[in-house]
Write a structure and sequence with these properties.
Blueprint: H1 15-62, H2 67-70, E1 73-77, E2 83-87, E3 94-102, E4 108-110, E5 132-138, H3 141-146, E6 152-158, H4 163-172, E7 178-186, E8 189-196, E9 206-209, H5 214-217, E10 228-230, E11 236-237, E12 240-241, E13 265-270, E14 277-280, H6 285-298, E15 305-309, E16 315-319, E17 331-338, E18 344-350, E19 355-357, E20 362-365, E21 370-374, E22 377-381, E23 385-386, E24 393-397, E25 408-414, H7 416-439, E26 443-449, E27 456-462, H8 469-483, E28 509-511, E29 517-519, H9 521-530, H10 532-539, E30 541-545, E31 551-554, E32 562-567, E33 572-575, E34 578-580, H11 587-590, E35 592-594, E36 600-602, E37 611-618, H12 620-633, H13 638-697
Antiparallel strand pairs: 1-25, 2-24, 3-21, 3-25, 4-8, 4-20, 5-6, 5-9, 7-8, 10-16, 10-19, 11-12, 13-14, 13-17, 15-16, 17-18, 21-22, 23-24, 26-27, 28-29, 30-37, 31-36, 32-33, 32-37, 33-34, 35-36
Helix pairs in contact: 1-7, 1-12, 1-13, 7-9, 8-12, 9-10
Length: 703
């Protein structure tokens, strides 16, 4: 039978057993190497589990690391299909009555007819000598906040780009305030559709650099009307946006605003010497706008300007000759009482700072703002999620209130039990991680008894992390961050804020005998009730200043904590007496200083010369989340290096195991062959002996 071997038939020796025992002696070398590999794999698995546990800890920390995440509110709404409310950083408990008049919509525009989607969109001459045009797209509000140093996202369009290429490039532009698509109207009639990411009349802007007007050739920008200017806020009533038929006494008369009287006027001012040009508020807004335009046209300096009211109650300024409007930073529109010399004496409405807008050739959907009332006070919002009207509170509008429908009641209450639950989950995950590290760092003695001899033996087993300075350093860092004092809020420095709750121990989170942390939940809840702001700052990344209106606008994982001192006159920034490198020196223009470490410091326009202190804080959860994030992302970091080293070791051992196994297999084959040869030789010898004895036995002797 194939594969069957019977040894010792001739010699009487158990050659199979001898071969097996000799092979087993050699196989022990393979077994020792295999054990090394298993130990290395076990250690590698523990490292991977460590990374998973670190990720779990970071996940729990992320629920507490920023002020808007730390705030947990119980939100209620009598009609959730119409309006909901939620809280973020700075939110306070409150109850409100809401009526939704109109929802915000997005701006959507189209290009001219484009014959094919897979051929170049325009003639080469449109692209100029370089063959490329750079398109600048406005950024979303979130992208601007993340990086205020650049207000646009740029993409390069080449002369060979097709409609599909342009759509893909626009949609790949991270942070752009517009999305692109293709609409096939009919065979050979394709349109580039651009839709604003954000709702409201601000919409999006688009411009180009290079070439000879690609955007006009495609029919995106108007060839007859240049950019216009849009007022920063609107004229509104309790029913929605004001129209030209709205009388001024219908404008929102909330107790927070002064009532507009029939004797008041609407005025346009251009800084640099021109005085107010006013129209009397006689009957309605349309009459006032007409009178304003009459006054504008009669003044040589403003005769090219024209004011109109859009569908959201905002004033748009454009030039009568269709050219781009300029100098919008100097435009102001206000409603109030003016004296005989047209000087404003009592301001009642300020329509805010003007911004420039594109004029598009084909408008599919004209954007509009949302309009609703809070406790009978009229509100205009460019978003259906209004987070600007009440600090820290977000009203999400979903549907327009029905005629005769009662006001929708919404409320926001701090959920203290949920906050305690999040902190407890964070501490539990921290304890689980520390216990895992400690369990795998200790050495133990394992006792065994030989089943045959009964002799007891002791074996010392070392934990996977035992003696590993990197792991012990990791543990110490985490413990230090969890139990240390947050100096910036401890009140030891005169920087604008302090709290008694500057360490976890003061909240009832203390170290137990086994090294883990225990929580006195009653003490923690008492601290939240006594000083919620202090507890929140202990855990989160936050900032504060000794000057009203100054704050941190953005930060990254590389941003350094501490008290930043700003010399307003020069824009220089100092940390612990050392000057900090600044990315841009445009502070005097936009009042934002961006530092090399990713921190941006915002200063109000009316900040006087002198020194301003802005403190940037990383609380407990923020520190741990940031620490884990940096450790995971650093290619040369400890975890990545350890994993790579152990994997290399496993691969090397496996290679050794494979080589040794080949040697053992060859050895087994060789001695098996040798014993088989021995059997054959002995068989031949026995046969020869038998033949000889048989021959000898046939010989007869004569006497």
């Amino acid at each position: 039978m194939a594969g069957m071997s019977v040894g010792g038939l001739v010699s009487g020796l158990d050659t199979n057993s001898i071969v097996a025992q000799l092979t087993a002696l050699e196989q022990m070398k393979v077994t020792r190497e295999t054990q090394k590999k298993e130990n290395a794999q076990k250690t590698l698995d523990k490292f991977k589990e460590l990374q998973t546990r670190l990720g779990n800890l970071a996940s729990k920390a992320s629920a507490l690391e920023t002020q808007n995440k730390f705030n947990v509110f119980k939100a209620t709404s009598s009609y959730e299909d119409y309006v909901t409310v939620s809280g973020k950083e700075g939110a306070t408990a409150g109850q409100y009555e809401i009526v939704v008049n109109k929802l915000a919509t997005t701006q959507k525009i189209s290009s001219n007819k484009i014959d094919a989607i897979n051929t170049p969109v325009a003639d080469e001459s449109v692209f100029g000598s370089t063959g490329n045009v750079t398109i600048s797209l406005s950024k979303t509000e979130a992208a601007l906040k993340k990086d205020p140093t650049k207000k646009t996202v740029d993409i390069k369009i080449s002369k060979n780009d097709t409609l599909k290429d342009i759509v893909n490039k626009i949609n790949a532009a991270e942070g752009a305030g517009v999305r692109a698509s293709i609409m096939a109207m009919a065979n050979g009639d394709n349109r580039l559709i651009l839709t604003a990411v954000e709702t409201g009349t601000k919409g999006f802007s688009i411009s180009e650099d290079g070439g000879t007007s690609l955007l006009q050739t495609l029919g995106i920008l108007s060839s007859t009307q240049g950019q216009t200017a849009l007022s920063g806020s609107a004229l509104i009533t309790k029913k929605g946006a004001a129209t030209e038929d709205t009388t001024f006494d219908e404008l929102n008369t909330s107790p927070l605003l002064k009532k507009v009287e029939a004797t008041d006027k609407i005025g346009l001012s251009i800084d640099g010497g021109l005085t107010w040009i006013t129209g009397s508020l006689t009957n309605n807004i349309g009459d006032a706008i007409n009178e304003l335009n009459t006054n504008l046209s009669s003044n040589p300096s403003t005769s090219n300007l024209e004011a109109v009211l859009n569908n959201s109650g905002e004033i748009i300024l454009k030039r009568r000759d269709g050219s781009d409007i300029t100098g919008v930073d100097n435009f102001q529109v206000k409603v109030g009482t003016f004296d005989a010399s047209d000087n404003l004496t009592d301001e009642k409405r300020d329509l805010g700072k003007f911004t420039t807008q594109n004029t598009f050739e084909h408008v599919i959907t004209e954007a509009q703002n949302a309009f609703y009332t809070i406790d009978d006070m009229a509100i205009s919002s460019r978003s259906n999620s209004d987070d600007k009207t009440i600090d820290g509170t977000i009203f999400t509008l979903k549907k327009v209130s029905k005629e005769g429908m009662e006001p929708i009641k919404v409320s926001l209450d701090l959920d203290r039990d949920a906050i305690v639950g999040n902190i407890t989950a964070f501490i539990d995950e921290f304890n689980a991680l520390l216990s895992f590290i400690d369990e795998n760092s200790k050495a133990t003695v394992k006792e065994d008894t030989d089943k045959v001899t009964g002799k007891k033996t002791s074996t010392r087993e070392v934990g996977c992390f035992s003696g590993d300075s990197g792991i012990s350093g990791l543990r110490d860092n985490l413990k230090r961050m969890m139990t240390g004092i947050i100096d910036e809020i401890a009140g030891t420095q005169n920087n604008g804020y302090s709290t008694n709750y500057s360490s976890a121990s003061r909240l009832g989170i203390t170290t137990q005998k086994d090294g883990t942390l225990g929580i006195d939940k009653d003490k923690l809840l008492k601290a939240i009730n006594a000083d919620f702001e202090g507890v929140r700052r202990l855990f989160t990344s936050n900032d504060f200043s000794d000057t009203t209106g100054c704050k941190v606008g953005n930060f990254t994982k590389n941003s350094t904590t501490g008290i930043y001192e700003i010399d307003v006159a020069t824009g220089k920034v100092y940390l612990k007496g050392e000057e900090v490198e600044v990315v841009s020196d445009s502070m005097l223009e936009n009042r934002v200083i961006t530092l090399k470490n990713g921190l941006s410091l915002e200063i109000p326009t009316d900040a006087s010369n002198g020194n301003i202190k802005i403190t940037f804080v990383r609380g407990i959860a923020s520190q741990i989340s940031n620490f884990v994030d940096k450790a995971k992302d650093t290619v040369s970091g400890y975890y990545k290096t350890s994993e790579k080293n152990y994997q290399n070791r496993i691969d090397s051992i496996q290679k050794r195991v494979d080589e040794l196994q080949i040697r053992v297999d060859n050895y087994n084959a060789r001695i098996t062959k040798q014993f088989a040869a021995l059997e054959r030789s002995m068989g031949n010898l026995q046969s020869q002996t038998a033949n000889m004895m048989s021959a000898l036995s046939g010989i007869s002797y004569k006497r």
